[in-house]
């Protein structure tokens, strides 16, 4: 059920991190930063623990965090969200996705995702007994084709699950694509779930457009984000969703039996982060863009075929120019070839469509520059 192949239980990310540890390789597989985020956020968590913020917080989330999420939506996107009824704090974006799908998908309902898709989507649609339909993203820019979207979204579609900026390809959907998704969702009365965990990890030339801000979208859209990506706190597992009040109520009925509530002292700390000045957010994207460029140049010089991502932690590289047809075999050999770990794109695909992506692999560049430089040096000799 949980793996597209019906097999192994460990996620591809856990497997690849274990491979990195076992072989002493540089881990550009699993997407997590290797340095701490902003000091005021870390300090706020320590302070909250000292202040005794250590018991169950309210079910929807600490009001301090709910208010900060509402301010963030207003500051960056001009969206007005009611903190008391339109927000739910969750155990990372993962629990937001899980509770949403379990609450809103009935057995046999169709859920449309884009392919390649973040691995949890396939597993969660399976847990909800939904039927998974996908729309292919095409290299090099990894946008969907309008005709494919029109064919996939029908009256059988309960929910369209969007991920923008996109993991694993780093693509950012253009405005025409987003508008078409809203148009089709409206025509077929489908809900839109939009996973925007990389909303602030977006590079020059691109901007983040939240789907909920598009005309007609708000009433049918559940927007999901996570503090992990923005504040380098992936291990804190604080995420959230915003949606119309009645959808939030439906999702809470499931969430109360999944985790009940989450990380009390981390919630005011993330509120502190969300209120950081604009410069913090600008520097975050600028720093990450420099890392993207460093790795992209290194991969290109080493002979990979590279598409420059517009956002996220990830870059997709084609190993075909290096003489490899199979990204899985390449990733298995890479620790020995170069002391580096990457993830094959096939981990984000269904068996039927795997062949479209077989020579592609994903590298994460959310690592210290020195680590990326070392990785680039080791990859240079690969040909
Ligand atoms: N969605 C996407 C697209 C992701 O890449 C990730 C993981 N990094 C998640 C959701 C899960 O986020 P969290 O760790 O907050 O559960
Ligand atoms: N989202 C991260 C990635 O894509 C990993 C999260 C996880 O390990 N589940 O690499």
TrEMBL record:
The source's domain of life comes to Bacteria
Task: Return the GO cellular component terms, semicolon-separated.
Answer: cytoplasm
Keywords, alphabetical: Aminotransferase, Pyridoxal phosphate, Transferase
Where does the Aminotransferase class I/classII large domain start and stop, copy by copy? Answer: 26-377
Q: Give the top-level enzyme category.
A: transferase
Question: Per its UniProt record, what CDD domains does this chain match?
Answer: AAT_like
Q: What is its EC number?
A: 2.6.1.17
Q: Which cofactor does it need?
A: pyridoxal 5'-phosphate
| Pfam families associated with the record | Aminotran_1_2 (PF00155)
Q: Which GO terms describe its molecular function?
A: kynurenine-oxoglutarate transaminase activity; pyridoxal phosphate binding; succinyldiaminopimelate transaminase activity
Q: Which family does the record claim for this protein?
A: Belongs to the class-I pyridoxal-phosphate-dependent aminotransferase family.
Q: What is this protein called?
A: N-succinyldiaminopimelate aminotransferase
Taxonomic lineage from the root? Bacteria, Bacillati, Actinomycetota, Actinomycetes, Micrococcales
